[in-house]
Every structure is written in structure tokens, then in C-alpha cells.
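Report of the visiting student (M.T.), summer placement. My assignment was to run the structure pipeline on a short list of targets and document each run. The first record concerns ISAs1 family transposase.
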Amino acid sequence: MSKSDKGTAMLTNPIAYLSQIEDPRRQNKNLLHPLKNILTIALTGILCGYSDWVAIEDFASENQAWFASFLDLTNGIPSHDTFSNVMKRLNKDQINRYFSQWINHNAPKHKHIAIDGKFVQGSHHDNDNLQLVSAYASEAKLILAQTDINDKANEITTLPQLLSLIDIKGSTITADAMYCQKDTTKQIIKQGGNYILALKNNHKTLFDDVSLWLNTQFDNKQLKVYETTEKDHGRLETRRYAISTELDWLEQKDQWHTLNAVVMVESTRDIQGKVSTERRYYLSSLTDLTTIGDTLRKHWAIENSQHWVLDVIFGEDTAIKLERNEKANIALLTRTALNLIRANGDANLSVKRHKIRASQNTAFREKLLFGKFL
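After the run finished, the C-alpha cells were exported:
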């Protein structure tokens, strides 16, 4: 495996994995464009900054000789309608699975994996709304897996499905209160990981007991405290992390697998003289307060490191006219492109500049797409 200029392992060509997806089209003599071609051109177009099928078709036509150097283009470039029709019909669960195999085969172990959801704007129908849940390696800034919440009924089962796609041995998993479930803690520990899970009123009795205990102990200065301060653009935020590893008082302790600590984070924000304070609560299998505090700060950073980039740089929220399945598959290709930029790119360039340079420089494009110069 080659190395990037950042010293980390570069990602290999994902098409070798994604092209194993079952082609939804009828396999006959009228099938002009192999699925490998469609996926490769679509991914490359997104990597180079093109966000709709017409633009990707035009980009591919202008670069047909380059694509023909490694693809069989006997029948030319697929039309924009072909791209759209195939993406609407591709099995999103299969493409998610092969994406995860690709990234987890190439990526090293990760100390911290954040689980977080992102809502993608709907289109013509309410059932086209898309809520994606991703596993995000905060230090490498790589998306390790993606799945979507089909409806409220399977919100609780989403995280176990996502975790089954990745190797979490030695990793600490952080997740919002939606995913704070007893079976989830059991699965994380069984797969060799640790957890820090947000606790809210979806477990009302447990939340009331934990918050009362931590508030009382904290206010009476009975807990170990770790404090951090961050200042940025007129905002001063002080976070005080407090932990209790004495849990004999907690009746529900044994229902949560390897629950070793309950944690409180008190955040005080001063924005141009306006001060607000908030307390949040967590269940954790870890007991080192500094590690817990540092890990939670990495989880909160996902908003800027992933969501902002996907919305602003890749324009994910602007694709409101697409059907749900097509939108989910494009989102997967977008995250593949972002991973390639993060792992194979130049640390001195922004994501936007990577896209521009890839569109104009074939050698740079090959480095991103294949993890090496051809």
C-alpha cells in the first residue's frame, strides 16, 4: 500500500469493490455500458466537482480518451439518463456493504469512531426524505460506513446494522442519545470496542437517576473534574467534564453491558457577553476522564469536518429533485470521493481546490482515484 504526502496509507481504487454490486439491469445484448463504467465515471465526475448527470456526461465526453485508457468504452460514454436510471435501481444496501469493505480493507485501526446522522433534503414526495447515519473516523477524517433510517420503526436497529459493517476492535464509539440502547452496548463490547453514549429522556428513569446523582455530586465538589477552554471568533467556551465510577447506587447498571462510568459535561458559552450554560450526560465503558473528554470533543467536530463539507462543498442538500434511492447511492459516491481526497490528496489544499485540480490535471486525478500515479 502506498503512502500519501501526509504519511498515512493511501486508499486504493474503490471501483474494484463497488463494481461487484449486482447490476439491476437485464443482462442481454442491448446492455451497452458495463456497470463498472457507469460507477467509475460517476465517481470521477463527483470527485472533479460535477453534481448532476448532464454535467458528468459532458465531463466524461471531454475526457473520453483518458477514460478509455482503463475502461472498455466500445459503446462510448453513457447518457445522463443511463446514469440516473442505474442509480435509481442500484441496491443501496449492497453498495453500502462494498463501500465498507473497501474502506475498512485499506484504512488502519481508528481510536475514535463517531456515529452521527445527517438529514438530506427531500424532493417531490415526503418519502423521498433521507436520513443518513455514518460511522466517521475522527482522526483520519474518513467515513467508514453509511446506512439510512428508512422509518421511525428502525431507528434503534440502525446502529447495530452500521457497526456490523466495520471493525471497531480497539476503537471508542461515540453516539447521540438515539443510539443509547442496551443491545448497542453489548454489541460494541462484543466487537472489541468501548463506548461513550449520550443519555437523554428517551431513557427517562435512567436519565433522572444519573443526572440527579451527577448534579448533586458535582455541585458538592465530590467528583473528579477535567476542564478545557476554547476561544474562537468572539466565542469563549469552557467545558468541565466530571465522572463517577461508583455505580452501586444505580439499579439499572447491570442492564448496560460493561457500564463503568457515568459522565457529565457542563458547557458554559460566552458569546459577546451573552452567557449560557448546559449540562449533558453520558454512559461510558471507559473510566479515564481525560480520554473521555478528548474523545467527546472529537465527536462534536464531525459537524465541521463532514457535514459542512458535504453540504457546502459538495452541495449535497441542493439535490432535492432526486428520488430517494438515487439520492442515497449518490451520497455514498460523494462520501467515497471525500475519502479519496482526505486519504490520497494534498494536506495543503482545501477540498474545493482538490476538486478543481482533479478536473484539470489528469495525473492529480489519477493519484486521488487510484492511490498512485498510473
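Residues 15-100+322-370 form one domain. The beta strands are 112-120, 130-137, 142-148, 172-175, 194-199, 224-232, 235-244, 261-271, 274-284. I thank the supervising group for their guidance throughout the placement.
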